[in-house]
What does this fold into?
Amino acid sequence: MPLRSSSSAAYIQNTLPNSNGAPSTRPTSLTIHPTALFSILDHYLRRTDAQHRVIGTLLGVRTDSNVEVKSAFAVLHSETDEQVAVDMDYHRAMYDLCIRVRPNETIVGWYSTGSDLNTYSALIQNFYSQETAPHQAVHVALDTGTEEGKGAGVKAYVSSPVGIFPKPENCVFVPIPCELRFHEAERSGLDLLLSPNPSSAQTDLDVLASALTEVQNMLNRVLTYVQSVLRGEVVGDKAVGRYLMDVLGTGVEEEGGWTAGLQDTLMVTYLANLVRSQAEVSARLALTTAV
It folds into this structure.
């Protein structure tokens, strides 16, 4: 995404002084949602041939020790051997539009594609640290896996200044744990993208059959674990046992709680089908009487 000739980009030079001090808080972990990753990949696919990487802004929420990245948007920039240019006005205009839609999200850092961290990365990190002050900006590096010998992956970093009087370009990127998090509503879409043939359209029955097969596989894994514990082959985990009891709805003092719950569910389903059939019969009788 090239910069226009009349762009209002600000050129970040190596000789710029360090205008901000060290951030007061430093996150220790990062979680990122698939929506942000898809935005980064879409930006990378739309790049020009002259761009070896793309950058953009990360939006999300933060706690004392964790940053949760929920979305991202592209930022116009250009890099040469002498300088890097970032369109700050475009960045702020896009952020103003995003907070109108998602007012609870703030700037938490920036992203780039590729795994190279250089002096320009430190300068861009310094700019985003000013945007996120007093918090420290995080950097997400997405390796697309298109380069030979490099696999796809996501890494997260925070920066640490180097020297007694550090300059913007003098910093070390410290990796922090990065975790992918998605909502249950996004699971079906992710499963479709990960399927061997995602281009084929799936009917509702296909989706239901796939979901039931997955549930059956999970139940088989649980059954295998429980049987191994009962045979004494594996030491039982109390936390897993409590979790299974909560999921199945069976208390310690209850006997046959799961069976009773299943019977209740079947009874409700039967009554619902009976009411629906009665309503259809009544509608047809009313139509016959009218004729």
